[in-house]
Amino acid sequence: GRGALDGRLDYGWLLAWVLLLLGMIPIQLMGTWLQGLFAIDFGGLLKQRLLAGALHMNLDEVRQKGVGQLLGHVIESQALESLALNGGFSVLLAAIELSLAAWVLAWGAGGLWHVLSLVLWIGGTLSVCWFYYQRLQHWTQARIDLTHELIEQMVGHRTRLAQEAPDERHVAEDQKLERYLHGSTDCDKGFIPLAWAVPRGWLIVGVFGLVPAFLGGRLEVTGLAVSLGGVLLAYRAFGEIGTGLVALARAFVAWETIAPLFHATQGDTEANTSASPGSACGKVTGRR
pTM here? Predict the structure, then answer.
């Protein structure tokens, strides 16, 4: 910052900066490799638990849900693995960068006013993410219902040909597709602020955070450089946290869908515990 604003370039600091950039390459490669290994292990454990839950599901519950909803649960389980890991790592790294950016801004020309602006912007980002999460819930449920309806109609296609009139055969399908289209449009509208408006809006807020320093006449070149560095660091973090929060929101919605399948083995374990040989029910079962 001093070299850019004062016109004085220190080759020692420049060399240190270059070495830091070169050191990021092996660190990022190692982080990506470890993240891939963790994702493979986590995915394997998740698939085993879901398979065990599918084998221990109540038959009455299976008949009630039908093939279509169960297929929707399988699709959501495939999305949960990648979305949870990618979104979790992105949000974690972005949170660290935002904490560092707040510390840098506190030492800059904006001072505590700059830090307060960053905290308020983070709160606004979380509010936008909650709004997107609610829309995503409705859209996911509409998609699962549409999948269920499609499977059921494919299974009973011959019955529909015999019982339904040709001009009324696709009226309900068109209505559900229209509702799904509206839900998808609302979901996309909620995604745009997180991916585009949040990071770019912070640049404007960050620049306006220097206004009190300008008006007070206490703006120095070093403080301006530190503040601009903190603003750019927070801008990068907001760019990552936007996509990370979207991935986490989708992972939470997917988890809400497959949670009964994940916990199906617990109900079976409790049933076996209640029917243990030491209980009355177990004794009756043993005599039978």
Answer: 0.68
Among candidate residues 272, 281, 267, the one with its CA nearest the CA of residue 61: 267
The alpha helices in the chain, defined as continuous H runs, are 2-6, 11-55, 59-107, 112-155, 157-163, 171-192, 198-208, 211-216, 221-262, 264-274, 280-287
Q: What is the pLDDT of residues 235-287, one digit of tens each?
A: 989 988 888 888 888 888 878 777 777 777 665 544 444 444 443 343 333 33
Orientation of helix 221-262 relative to helix 112-155, angle to 10°: 30
User: In Å, what is the CA distance from 135 to each residue of 130, 159, 177, 182?
Assistant: 9, 36, 17, 11
Rounded distance between C-alpha atoms, residue 82 and residue 281, angstroms:
43
Low-confidence residues of the chain, pLDDT below 50? 269-288
**CA distances, 131 to each of 28, 73, 92, 98, 205 (Å):** 33, 24, 21, 22, 22
| Contact predicate 20/232, CB 8 Å | no
